[in-house]
Amino acid sequence: MEKTHTKGDWSILDTMEIVAMPSQTKIGRLDFISETDLAQGAPEMLANGKLMAAAPDLLKALQDINRHWSEGNFSRETNLWEAMDKAIKKATK
Length: 93
Hints:
By secondary structure, this protein is an alpha+beta fold. It is about 50% helix and about 15% strand. Strand 2 (about 15-20) and strand 3 (about 25-30) form a beta hairpin.
């Protein structure tokens, strides 16, 4: 049985909740000690949240590239690489 995840464009909100857009279905929440801790620089927590929010985009980019290559096409198809770059930026910027 194939496992599925909540569909949608996942985003991380200022409240540290990860939601699927546009419905804002809650995926999860990053916990922190206090608002002060977050304000004083919990960059690792925010980076983790961005990576989690980008997970569906990263998965889709990998699946598309895998499908493309499994069909014997090893060319650098522009839209596949653009999708991959966009997913990486979402996870890291």
